[in-house]
Amino acid sequence: DVIAGFLYAILILLVFHPVVDLIDNFNLTYKYAPLIIIIFEMSAVEKIEEQLASLRIAKRSTLSKEPAYLLDIDISKPAQSESSRFVAVSCSNKSIRVYNKETLTFLREYSSCPGILNGVRFAHACDSVVFSACSDGTVKCWDIRLATEKAAQIFSGYPSNVFISFDINCSDLIICAGTEKVEKDSFLVFWDARGVTSCASATKEPLGVYSESHNDDITTICFHPVKPNLLVSGSTDGLVNVFDINKDNEDDALISTCNSDSSVSFTGWSGKDYKQVYCMTHDEGFCWWDIAQLDTEEPITLSHVLDVRDAVRIENDALHYLVGGLYHEKADKLFLIGGTSTGNIHLISCGTDGLSLVGTLCGGHSATVRSFCWNLTDECLLTGGEDAQLLLWKPGAVERSLTKKTSMKIASSVQKRVRVHNSSLESRKK
């Protein structure tokens, strides 16, 4: 690809500049290096976008005896093996299901009754250890290696805590969970996760809390991919906060507060060295900030789109909602994932000059897509939705069975507990 790109650059130069001029000056490399580099960069981004657009269904999980919305997905980290082995999914029926990553064969199921699970994450150092936050005020650790279906370790919060978001940092040392607002309080609760890979059966108490930085439900938490001390949180109060948890107190730890002007549904890190943060909102807005500009006079806002549904033109289709975002390291490019109520998935490229459609994945889901997970190791995408299906997408894959499952319905009592994408937020705080 590099040689082809170089020859292509030379061809362009020969077309627009006389050969004699190139020979006489002998400064082709110096004079035209920026043009060649731009061509290479454009080719890299275009290649990634083409790869994403070529995603096709490789595997489809079998429908469970008890169908449920698939609300969150994570893939085990390949730290101690050549590739990821497991996929964990949190479901609306208060369970975590574990599948073989390559075949989507069902392996295990864990129940959190009577609490409701919110989020699922694998440990980074051990691919058989998986966590989930729970509405009963705990974060539970499950060990796939054990025969028992009971939690191997429990991280307990304070009596009034109802956890609706959480994450574990890249060194597996700290767990953080966000709470619903109770009276006037909402908390970020922290635990020491050391020794979790051995999952000694015990209940751990919190290290402490942050209580002053948000004043409403803390809906999303995301640790920095490579710096274990950095954390971004988002809330229905519209704020996206960046913390350095190595600092002694909450005031010092708060590095930046960005206002999305809406209720935050998703946060993430992007950019080279992950110095940017972005968020999506419950009314389908998108905000993007460059934290590296905090100590400069340059503006930190890279993009602020009030409604992505109006900003992205999609021929013969529509964009009904956003699911989340993914940053592609190789292309240094941020993408958003959205979709339609009939199950189509839209891949959207983000730039400071606007948003554009990369491609649409059709023929997979038959209802709203709730969750996804991008695996950089083998460039595959996993998606889950309200049709109770878990799908594995790979570039150029061919699915053996093209049977499309019909949409399913879930009891209204469960629907009340599951966030639904709306065109407006009736209860949003201004």
From TrEMBL:
<dbReference type="InterPro" id="IPR036322">
    <property type="entry name" value="WD40_repeat_dom_sf"/>
</dbReference>
<feature type="repeat" description="WD">
    <location>
        <begin position="362"/>
        <end position="394"/>
    </location>
</feature>
<keyword id="KW-0812">Transmembrane</keyword>
<dbReference type="Pfam" id="PF00400">
    <property type="entry name" value="WD40"/>
</dbReference>
<dbReference type="InterPro" id="IPR001680">
    <property type="entry name" value="WD40_rpt"/>
</dbReference>
<keyword id="KW-0472">Membrane</keyword>
<keyword id="KW-1133">Transmembrane helix</keyword>
<dbReference type="InterPro" id="IPR039328">
    <property type="entry name" value="WDR89"/>
</dbReference>
<keyword id="KW-0677">Repeat</keyword>
<feature type="transmembrane region" description="Helical">
    <location>
        <begin position="6"/>
        <end position="23"/>
    </location>
</feature>
<keyword id="KW-0853">WD repeat</keyword>
<protein>
    <recommendedName>
        <fullName>WD repeat-containing protein 89</fullName>
    </recommendedName>
</protein>
<feature type="repeat" description="WD">
    <location>
        <begin position="211"/>
        <end position="253"/>
    </location>
</feature>
<dbReference type="InterPro" id="IPR015943">
    <property type="entry name" value="WD40/YVTN_repeat-like_dom_sf"/>
</dbReference>
